[in-house]
């Protein structure tokens, strides 16, 4: 992720980096979301978790893992690639298409919980809803995110939020996960160093 | 990503693999209830066909439509071409109508290359003369990879009328890029002298089909172009079939896992017998299915982003 342009002051100062969630915090937050899902869905019956690549995929697997630890129910997990549904496709060089893997039982008539790392403009979720519409007809759709950083550009909200982080548009939020990046961490970059 | 797809040699190994991987994702769309993706919404694809074709034109049309592009079909018959309009003027007309991509089939080798200089959009070669047919090579490579699990190290025999075959030329270029070893097989009159070295180093030539068969993973039969059968490239159709046709006994001499391919349309009883064409080893129907996925991948990678 690119740093925002440096402030006018010179000499150039280091962009500030703030750890919002450390490894143990991330695990606690995932545990809490898993509990909330169990509570809100009465034991996660008839529920499917769909991760949005890249980092929603391991998050969805972790949630399913925690749910099966807490209540001994196996929640099917899948991957929903949204590349071909993005609204900014033609503003960038062609993006590689990733795999979409639906669980064997499909999603028709199920409660689908979309899982992503950061909720920002809401455009990714909009694309995911369009993609979902083409692969099946779920009974209902919910959204779980690790971080909600605000600045929505569409009328979209999350049902399960790990951490609300008030940010300015000059800042950027970076989530790293052990499965992909080696460590679990949520960091806030940039803005004015304080 | 490249702007045009004119030759099997345009693709390096990474780009070709990216196309095949993307095609594998596109293939999952065919199994869905709604066989449609929004990726090329608002883009216009023109199918410019100066030569008869069923599967290639329909395949490109289906691919573009599944990606939500608008498709304009143009065939030389019934158009201003019969009034004497040149390729360039036709191209400029298409340009003025805002074509984002032109898929062209033309009897003259090199026509797509000329077209690429005249239009702003992407040009996809869908077969030019006896020169190249790159999307066919891509779908053949995709089919081999799907059936055999890999391309690197495969031994592929391309059998028949290599001289007039654009399919053979594109396949030699692409397959050698992807690490497969190609042997061209056919009567000496139908294999150009020194073609192997000129196209891709490492390509072999053989005039004896029976000695090649036990050592290959893939046999690709080429159509004997009936329109050339009186040009004395070989004494008679029967003799050709006996020496270079793939029949049941020959098929049984192939290794257990080997597959039989044909780009179509087939001359049953000439280069391939019905027993072979309809056997489980034959991938002929799969090739048509895979053609749509591969062409979706090509159109998406050429037109999907802002590559201008």
TrEMBL record, chain B:
<feature type="domain" description="Aspartate/ornithine carbamoyltransferase Asp/Orn-binding">
    <location>
        <begin position="153"/>
        <end position="302"/>
    </location>
</feature>
<dbReference type="Pfam" id="PF02729">
    <property type="entry name" value="OTCace_N"/>
</dbReference>
<feature type="binding site">
    <location>
        <position position="105"/>
    </location>
    <ligand>
        <name>carbamoyl phosphate</name>
    </ligand>
</feature>
<protein>
    <recommendedName>
        <fullName>Aspartate carbamoyltransferase</fullName>
        <ecNumber>2.1.3.2</ecNumber>
    </recommendedName>
</protein>
<feature type="binding site">
    <location>
        <position position="166"/>
    </location>
    <ligand>
        <name>L-aspartate</name>
    </ligand>
</feature>
<comment type="subunit">
    <text>Heterododecamer (2C3:3R2) of six catalytic PyrB chains organized as two trimers (C3), and six regulatory PyrI chains organized as three dimers (R2).</text>
</comment>
<feature type="binding site">
    <location>
        <position position="83"/>
    </location>
    <ligand>
        <name>L-aspartate</name>
    </ligand>
</feature>
<dbReference type="GO" id="GO:0016597">
    <property type="term" value="F:amino acid binding"/>
</dbReference>
<dbReference type="InterPro" id="IPR036901">
    <property type="entry name" value="Asp/Orn_carbamoylTrfase_sf"/>
</dbReference>
<feature type="binding site">
    <location>
        <position position="136"/>
    </location>
    <ligand>
        <name>carbamoyl phosphate</name>
    </ligand>
</feature>
<feature type="binding site">
    <location>
        <position position="223"/>
    </location>
    <ligand>
        <name>L-aspartate</name>
    </ligand>
</feature>
<dbReference type="GO" id="GO:0006207">
    <property type="term" value="P:'de novo' pyrimidine nucleobase biosynthetic process"/>
</dbReference>
<feature type="binding site">
    <location>
        <position position="265"/>
    </location>
    <ligand>
        <name>carbamoyl phosphate</name>
    </ligand>
</feature>
<feature type="binding site">
    <location>
        <position position="133"/>
    </location>
    <ligand>
        <name>carbamoyl phosphate</name>
    </ligand>
</feature>
<dbReference type="GO" id="GO:0006520">
    <property type="term" value="P:amino acid metabolic process"/>
</dbReference>
<comment type="pathway">
    <text>Pyrimidine metabolism; UMP biosynthesis via de novo pathway; (S)-dihydroorotate from bicarbonate: step 2/3.</text>
</comment>
<dbReference type="InterPro" id="IPR006130">
    <property type="entry name" value="Asp/Orn_carbamoylTrfase"/>
</dbReference>
<dbReference type="GO" id="GO:0004070">
    <property type="term" value="F:aspartate carbamoyltransferase activity"/>
</dbReference>
<dbReference type="InterPro" id="IPR006131">
    <property type="entry name" value="Asp_carbamoyltransf_Asp/Orn-bd"/>
</dbReference>
<feature type="binding site">
    <location>
        <position position="56"/>
    </location>
    <ligand>
        <name>carbamoyl phosphate</name>
    </ligand>
</feature>
<keyword id="KW-0665">Pyrimidine biosynthesis</keyword>
<dbReference type="InterPro" id="IPR002082">
    <property type="entry name" value="Asp_carbamoyltransf"/>
</dbReference>
<feature type="binding site">
    <location>
        <position position="55"/>
    </location>
    <ligand>
        <name>carbamoyl phosphate</name>
    </ligand>
</feature>
<comment type="similarity">
    <text>Belongs to the aspartate/ornithine carbamoyltransferase superfamily. ATCase family.</text>
</comment>
<feature type="domain" description="Aspartate/ornithine carbamoyltransferase carbamoyl-P binding">
    <location>
        <begin position="3"/>
        <end position="145"/>
    </location>
</feature>
<comment type="function">
    <text>Catalyzes the condensation of carbamoyl phosphate and aspartate to form carbamoyl aspartate and inorganic phosphate, the committed step in the de novo pyrimidine nucleotide biosynthesis pathway.</text>
</comment>
<feature type="binding site">
    <location>
        <position position="264"/>
    </location>
    <ligand>
        <name>carbamoyl phosphate</name>
    </ligand>
</feature>
<dbReference type="GO" id="GO:0044205">
    <property type="term" value="P:'de novo' UMP biosynthetic process"/>
</dbReference>
<dbReference type="GO" id="GO:0005829">
    <property type="term" value="C:cytosol"/>
</dbReference>
<keyword id="KW-0808">Transferase</keyword>
<dbReference type="InterPro" id="IPR006132">
    <property type="entry name" value="Asp/Orn_carbamoyltranf_P-bd"/>
</dbReference>
<dbReference type="Pfam" id="PF00185">
    <property type="entry name" value="OTCace"/>
</dbReference>
